[in-house]
């Protein structure tokens, strides 16, 4: 049995600090992640200003074209795959220029047909989170080279009781994009057959930002990676 792939979702947890971003990439690799993943967006276009206490933070964590080069180069040095959720067509071009191998569609973008068509046109594999998809059938994405769908509950953080993994068919879903606190839910998902685990990653859960509290620490990532390796060997 092949080991479940672990995506360390750094996302906005670099807090706009490129040194912290590099430290997160290095720690992701050292603790056993296969992928270090970021989010690439135009903050003023993507995030509302009104009733959003994190708006200034969202703007601070927006990555420039030049910063993508820094992050991609750091991933190459650390021998870990660089990946990103991308939220607009212009930034797909940026990611093509830095040579990403595949793309992630976030739950909030699953109905953005313009973005999806641009991603399909790259010919690269696509991973799709379905936290905001309520239809019984998966979304149709014609002409996609390769598609993997992730089960997801779009609550931040997600209570364990709301995950309901027993009802998830991991022969249909490739994996699980997790927003719970701790690693019990992703461990359960691997046991049930998930081939991909995506989870936010931080060096310190007490850092300022909306995602740190529900992120896994280096110790938790190492434990999750060890479990994924050992259950693959056992099965």
Description:
With 235 residues, this protein is α/β, with parallel strands linked by helices. It has one domain: Aldolase class I (TIM Barrel, Alpha-Beta Barrel), CATH 3.20.20.70. Helix content is 34%, strand content 17%. The protein contains 8 helices and 8 strands. It has an 8-stranded parallel beta sheet with strand order 3-2-1-8-7-6-5-4. The protein is globular and about 45 Å long. The mean pLDDT is 96.
What's the short version?
The protein has about 240 residues and is α/β, with parallel strands linked by helices. The chain is about 35% helix and about 15% strand. Helix 1 runs parallel beside helix 4.
Which terms summarize this structure?
235 residues; single chain; eight-stranded parallel β-sheet; TIM Barrel; alpha/beta
The helix/strand series, from N terminus to C terminus, equals EHEHHHEHEHEEEHEH
**Text of the CATH class:** Alpha Beta
**Strand residues, percent:** 15-25%
Q: Structural class, please?
A: alpha/beta
Task: State the end-to-end distance.
Answer: 6 Å
What order do the helices and strands come in, and which of them pair?
Elements: E1 5-11, H1 18-30, E2 35-40, H2 43-46, H3 55-60, H4 65-78, E3 81-86, H5 89-98, E4 103-105, H6 113-121, E5 126-129, E6 147-152, E7 175-178, H7 184-191, E8 196-200, H8 218-234
Parallel strand pairs: 1-2, 1-8, 2-3, 4-5, 5-6, 6-7, 7-8
Helix pairs in contact: 1-4, 4-5, 7-8
């Amino acid at each position: 049995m092949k080991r479940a792939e672990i995506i360390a979702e750094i996302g906005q947890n670099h807090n706009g600090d490129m040194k912290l971003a590099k430290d997160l990439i290095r720690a992701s690799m050292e603790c056993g992640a296969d992928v270090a993943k970021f989010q690439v967006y135009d903050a003023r276009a993507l995030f509302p200003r009104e009733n959003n206490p994190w708006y200034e933070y969202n703007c601070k964590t927006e990555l420039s074209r030049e910063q993508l080069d820094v992050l991609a180069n750091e991933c190459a040095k650390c021998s870990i795959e660089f990946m990103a959720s991308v939220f607009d067509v212009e930034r797909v071009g940026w990611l093509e220029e830095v040579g990403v191998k595949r793309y992630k569609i976030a739950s909030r973008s699953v109905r953005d047909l313009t973005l999806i068509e641009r991603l399909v046109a790259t010919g690269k594999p696509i991973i799709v989170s379905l936290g905001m998809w309520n239809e019984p059938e998966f979304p149709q994405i014609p002409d996609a080279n390769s598609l993997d769908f992730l089960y997801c509950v779009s609550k931040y953080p997600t209570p364990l009781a709301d995950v309901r993994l027993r009802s998830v068919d991991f022969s249909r879903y490739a994996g699980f994009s997790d927003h719970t606190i701790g690693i019990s839910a992703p461990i359960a998902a691997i046991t049930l057959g998930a081939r991909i685990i995506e989870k936010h990653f931080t060096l310190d859960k007490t850092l300022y930002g909306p995602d740190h509290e529900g992120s896994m620490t280096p110790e938790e990532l190492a434990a999750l990676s060890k479990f994924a390796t050992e259950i693959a060997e056992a099965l």
